[in-house]
Fold this protein.
Amino acid sequence: MKLFDLTGKVAVVTGGNGGIGLGMARGLAQAGAAVVVAARNAAKSAAAVAELEGFGVKSAFIALDVADPGSCRGLIAQVVERFDRLDILVNNAGMSIRKPPEAYELGEWLKVIDTNLNGVFVLCQAAHAPFKRQGGGKIINIGSMMSIFGGAYAAPYSTSKGGIVQLTKSLGTAWAKDNIQVNAVLPGWIDTELTRDARAQVKGLNERVLARTPAGRWGVPDDLSGVAVFLAGAASDFVTGAAIPVDGGYASEF
Ligand code: NDP
């Protein structure tokens, strides 16, 4: 058994055009998988596709608005039509709106939950039939440290990321019989556009992250490449429903 070889596999990475998604996509491509980058920004996605093709694999951009259930179902249908199969679904696209809980408009709350949680459910549901037909599949959902901790300025975000863990456990147990493994990755503080915005908006965040992270640094997107390969390959065939922190020790220290 080739534990970490993804040759011949087809992966979809939502939000694969930058940040953590691109870090994971790089890992999958280097292990031999064809990678579909699914996101809204076409120019940014074209640059990611070109970079991934540089690893000698096929790559393509398919437009996705993960907050739109029709767009999610259309993505999975297009991947199966164009690539004849789907083996790995990485649910990484996500966003946050930061303010105190009492200040959210209902529409803002719903936007975060639709993007970070409801879209993940719809994509997983759409992927189930092709996975089952092929005899199995791998789903990697991206949670957060806020799957574990609350965030005073991120109530809908923390709610969505807590939900990701419970969704992962539920799907993992429901679909184990179909040889579909569903796991979550909980990144610590990773230097991306998302956290650059947070650093600009939340005073003292940079210093707090550095002081609180035992590894003494922010993570970088490529810190997530290896866990993606592990959870996408045969190495993790008996791992399902797990939520794995990749956080430089952040969640482990009292
Ligand atoms: P970025 O802002 O760099 O990337 C977010 C990605 O999501 C972009 O590729 C964006 O592409 C895509 N995206 C956002 N909204 C939508 C949408 N409606 N439809 C389709 N794609 C969308 O952030 P990160 O790389 O930091 O975040 C990636 C994931 O990791 C998120 O789920 C985030 O919550 C999680 N995370 C990040 C942490 C960190 O420290 N950075 C820590 C813990 C979790 P486009 O704009 O082109 O649509």
User: Anything to note?
Assistant: Residues 14-15, 17-21, 39-41, 44, 64-67, 92-95, 115, 142, 144, 187, 189-190, 192-195 surround NDP (CB under 6 Å). DSSP finds eight helices and seven strands in the chain. Residues 2-246 form a domain with the Rossmann fold fold (CATH 3.40.50.720).
